[in-house]
From TrEMBL:
Source organism superkingdom: Bacteria
Any one of the GO CC terms: plasma membrane
Official protein name in the record: Sugar ABC transporter permease
Stated family: Belongs to the binding-protein-dependent transport system permease family.
Main location: membrane
Bilayer topology: Multi-pass membrane protein
Organism: Zhenhengia yiwuensis
Gene3D superfamilies per the UniProt record, alphabetical: MetI-like (1.10.3720.10)
GO BP: any one term: transmembrane transport
Length: 318
């Protein structure tokens, strides 16, 4: 009984503290209202549409008026061999992108941080961050021109060096899509990740570096024993978020780089849903695919968060 009373007292005290904090800082809470309204309207209210995945949706009848079909759409999805192809491509491209880009961005951020010339450091940061602002439509057009068999720079260099006898149609070669996607994605996304890591590095206590210098640590040892351990929570958080998105490569990069000739290796869930939903108007089927994708994403983020918590409770994000 005493434990219950103590618990009630603690809860009451916490509630009182929260209310008093809200009263004290009410202007800041007022600023949160527009953001909360936007999140509720555009993130939570649309969840009502999830039930379309369990209905034979007809636009004329609406969501409630459409016939309930239960798991029929999920049965249709998992009996379609094309779905397993796009699922495999999605996982393959996501895993390869994570394996290649994640360590590269960490290493590059550490190298940029070690630059002594501040002007050169800013130039490098700007050059690496600029691609982040480019639309994937622009990037896709740039890649197509760069790899063009008629006047593309890459083909011209390879032919002039005698590496190949005639131009290669890179963008229609199925085996070439994966490396093209990985290199392009790495080039475009590296700068954004570097900014996050550099911001985390800037928050490291300089006293730790001074102590390491006094102990005789060289620059590599300071990176290894001071910078990397301090970056561990940030690295772990970004890794968890990346793992949670393994089921969603992203529509924009694939759509702007692939073509019908590369469907066998380039078609992913996002583009498959686009064709089924926007082209064929199978909204109920695409909703079922999206629900499956999101459920797997939640499972992945919970699992990766559990692993992080096992390694170190401070690394978890939930």
């Amino acid at each position: 009984m005493k434990e219950i009373e103590i618990t009630k007292e603690i809860n009451a005290k916490n509630n009182k503290t929260l209310i008093s904090q809200m009263k004290k800082y009410y202007p800041f809470y007022l600023f949160l209202i527009p953001a909360l309204v936007i999140v509720i309207l555009f993130s939570y209210v649309p969840m009502y549409g999830i039930i379309i995945a369990f209905k034979d949706f007809k636009m004329a009848r609406g969501i409630l008026g459409s016939e309930w079909v239960g798991l029929a759409h999920f049965q249709k999805i998992f009996s379609d061999p094309n779905f397993y192809r796009v699922l495999f491509n999605t996982i393959k491209l996501s895993v390869l992108s994570l394996v290649t880009s994640f360590p590269v961005t960490i290493i590059f951020a550490l190298l940029v941080n070690e630059l002594m010339n501040m002007k050169f450091k800013r130039v490098v940061q700007t050059i690496t961050y600029l691609p982040h602002f480019l639309s994937w439509v622009v990037v896709g057009g740039f890649v197509y021109q760069l790899l063009s068999p008629s006047n593309g720079l890459i083909n011209s260099i390879l032919v002039s060096l005698g590496v190949i006898d005639k131009s290669i149609y890179f963008m229609v070669e199925q085996d070439m899509f994966t490396p093209i996607f990985l290199i392009t994605n790495l080039w475009k996304s590296t700068g954004y990740s570097i900014v996050i890591y550099l911001a985390a590095i800037a928050g490291i206590d300089q006293g730790l570096y001074e102590a390491a210098i006094i102990d005789g640590a060289n620059r590599f040892q300071r990176v290894l024993y001071v910078t990397l351990p301090a970056l561990a929570p940030t690295i772990c958080t970004l890794l968890i978020l990346n793992i949670s998105s393994l089921m969603s490569v992203g529509f924009d990069p694939i759509f702007n780089l692939y073509n019908p000739a590369t469907y066998p290796t380039a078609d992913v869930i996002a583009t498959y849903v686009y064709r089924k939903g926007m082209v064929e108007a199978q909204y109920d089927l695409t909703t079922a695919i999206g629900l499956f994708q999101n459920v797997v994403g939640v499972i992945l983020i919970l699992f990766s968060n559990w692993l992080a918590r096992k390694a170190n409770p401070d690394y978890r994000i939930i």
